Structure formats: C-alpha cells, structure tokens
Amino acid sequence: VQLVESGGGLAQPGGSLRLSCAASGFTFSNHALSWFRQAPGKEREFVSGISGSGTNTRTADSVKGRFTISRDNAENTVYLQMNSLKPEDTAVYYCARADFLTTWYNPDEYDYWGQGSQVSVSS
C-alpha cells in the first residue's frame, strides 16, 4: 500500500491550493480516505474524509465552506481543494486510508498514511 501526496507549497492568505493523494497497492474504492493535518507543536487533526464510493463526506468545522474533498476512483486519487486559505491552515497535510471506520476523527482508525505535504500560508 502506498499513499503519495503532492500539491502543497506556499500560498498567500486568501489563496488556493489543491492537494492530491495517489494511491496504489489496494482496491481503492473499498476504502474511505481522509486528510489530516499537523501544525508544529500541535496534535494531528482531522480535516476531511470521503467514503469509498465518494457519496459521503465529512469536513471539520475549522475548514468547512473553504475546503472540499473529492476522489476519482478511476485514477485512484483523492483530492483536497483548499480555498480562502488562512495562516492557521499552515501544517503538514497527510492522506490516510481508513481501516474499519467508526469515526472519521480518530487517527487510530487509519492504517496507512502518506509521507505528508507541507502547506504554508503567509504573506
């Protein structure tokens, strides 16, 4: 199993970035996938998740209305579109595969993680 994030970088406040997570080594549509983030000195926090079929999503209140998760099961890729970025969105963003999911927010319910992609928001 591999999860490889890309698309991070530096953005100005109010700007946009799109993260991608390319997956391999498993049946992609069988698993929910989520984005987490971790800022320096803080715990890893849930950002947004999407079910295997793509019909169900969950987004943290802190990014709701600004971030949108989507997936392309034909391309084995999950995306995070981030708009209206704020300095507090600065963090390393991780893609994670859900094992048996009972709650989106618990990192322990995810069995594979990507290496992370740095997102920095600054003027």
Describe the protein.
This protein is mainly beta and 123 residues long. It has strands at residues 2-6, 9-11, 17-24, 33-38, 45-50, 57-59, 67-72, 77-82, 91-98, 110-113, 117-121. It starts with a strand and ends with a strand. The model has no long low-confidence stretch (mean pLDDT 96).
| Coarse shape | globular
Q: Please, what is the average pLDDT?
A: 96
> How many distinct beta strands?
11
Main beta sheet: strand number and arrangement?
7 strands, mixed
User: Which blocks of ≥5 consecutive residues have pLDDT under 50?
Assistant: none
Radius of gyration: 13 Å
Secondary structure: elements and pairs:
Elements: E1 2-6, E2 9-11, E3 17-24, E4 33-38, E5 45-50, E6 57-59, E7 67-72, E8 77-82, E9 91-98, E10 110-113, E11 117-121
Parallel strand pairs: 2-11
Antiparallel strand pairs: 1-3, 3-8, 4-5, 4-9, 5-6, 7-8, 9-10, 9-11
